[in-house]
Amino acid sequence: MPSNKSVSDAPITQFTNCRILRDHCLQREDLWVRDGKILDPEKLFFDEHGYADKCVDCEGSIIAPGFIDVQINGGYGIDFSQACDDAGSGVSLVAKKILEHGVTSFCPTLVTSPPHVYHKVLPQVKVHDGGAHGAGVLGFHLEGPFISLEKKGAHPEQFLRTFSSGGFRDLIETYGSLDSVAMVTLAPELDGSQSVIRDLCQKGITVSLGHSVANMSQAEEAVQHGASFITHLFNAMLPFHHRDPGIVGLLTSDQVPAGRKVYYGMIADGIHTNPAALRIAHRAHPSGLVLVTDAITAMGLPPGRHTLGQQVIEIQGLHAYVAGTKTLSGSIATMDMCVRHFKHASGCSVEEALEAASLHPAQLLGLSHRKGNLDFGSDADLVLLDETLNVKATFISGEEVWRK
């Protein structure tokens, strides 16, 4: 029987023979999609008397919300932090390639760069939905240059900045515009940072704490002003100390305002964080864990020398170092690799591993009303996985955009 055309001319797709991730557990039921959104089958049957126009046999697959990567510096030879005339085409190439890793939305990330790089790159890429052309762009993540000299990691020292012009003016001088920006990572101990955090949050931009020597009270003050994320927990911050846990202490802080949650990024590539540290973080604050790749130009390429912004990076095995040093500089991991490693290393459930790559980043960015879940009315951005969490197919708005 055809679908009921009185409600919409769009065809209805029914995904069958699957387990879908809904309400924090895998449920054996079908998934219905129309107009790029997830349908409530009860309303379809009883109110519209509608039926599926097309059936997709998932052959026992898990269906999870599409993965969302909020920290990815590039990949496949593309470095987002390079001032080029076709930054948009580079972002598009990466957007297309990461579909095979289940990523349906992402935040292209720029590391600390001179102002001319931001002024050149940021206007070239707009926020846009995903599709057959590639994963959707949720806005840039600007990691630096307002970070700590002591914890700069792979960020070039000569381009670090402080809020010397009074705060928000420094941001505009450096970045040029915030129109396509979703997140800014900064060090909360810098003078003037608290007013900057407040101003960014008022503009709907997520503020993350990272590359910082902040103590716990400075970190808590930043959260009270609106900061809601920690950039790659444990990396590029003071180590946990029992008398002053620093930024890490936010995971169990009692000073987080009521109704607010602090999220934290983890690079679960088996290199950046020891499995025991992954387990400590997850067990302390499971609902805040957000998997990020922090992937660089070399993701998807053979070992050798590549760039990360203004630095030369050397790939040795699975490690990415600033050339001539042992300073880690991003990863070459893909999001599906991180999901599998996180599950194995932490001992968490399949559901928790999948939500760390979908629901939690969507909540962090304030998008969980339409992304990061399979609730009725949400975007039908889906990833089909086998039992061992290998990606079999990726869908955006209910349309297949990649299949193994």
From TrEMBL:
GO terms for biological process: N-acetylglucosamine catabolic process; N-acetylneuraminate catabolic process; negative regulation of UDP-N-acetylglucosamine biosynthetic process. Zn(2+) binds at residues 143, 211, 232. Pathway: Amino-sugar metabolism; N-acetylneuraminate degradation. Gene3D superfamilies: Metal-dependent hydrolases, Urease, subunit C, domain 1. Residues 62-401 form the Amidohydrolase-related domain. Keywords: Carbohydrate metabolism, Hydrolase, Metal-binding. The keyword Metal-binding applies. Its EC number is 3.5.1.25. Binds 1 divalent metal cation per subunit. Substrate binds at residues 154, 235-236, 243, 272, 328-330. It holds the Pfam family Amidohydro_1. It is an enzyme of class 3 (hydrolase). One of its GO terms (molecular function) is N-acetylglucosamine-6-phosphate deacetylase activity. Its cofactor is a divalent metal cation. The active site is at residue 294. It catalyses: N-acetyl-D-glucosamine 6-phosphate + H2O = D-glucosamine 6-phosphate + acetate. Belongs to the metallo-dependent hydrolases superfamily. NagA family. This is N-acetylglucosamine-6-phosphate deacetylase. It comes from Champsocephalus esox (pike icefish).
